[in-house]
Request: fold
Amino acid sequence: MCVCLIFVYSRYVVPKIEGYTQATPIDFYIAKSGQKVYVETVGFKSFAHLLYFQKQAGSPTGEELMNRSSVDRPAFFVMKSDAEDRFKYHPNLILINEANGFLFYKHK
Reply:
């Protein structure tokens, strides 16, 4: 009985977990994929932007980009809505979208 329950759970529930927890930022990463932009996560760790945006090795980190007065290409930042105020109210960032517990910023 227990094995059947685990099988059913893993078959129907587990594949949906990614959609419930990260669908919004994954859609953002996919939309930016192929463009000459920076996309970084700030305040939380995720490998989704590495996979779906296909981030290039050697790119600057999110905090490095945020603190630059100018960048060589558009830079976007993804944060969770409970991010620290030092990230959310950074003087170099403009809020462009808020959806499903995530904040999306662009460098000025």
About this structure: The first strand starts at residue 38 and ends at 41. The chain has five helices and four strands. The helical segments are 2-12, 14-32, 48-52, 62-67, 85-88. The CA atoms of residues 95 and 105 lie 4 Å apart.
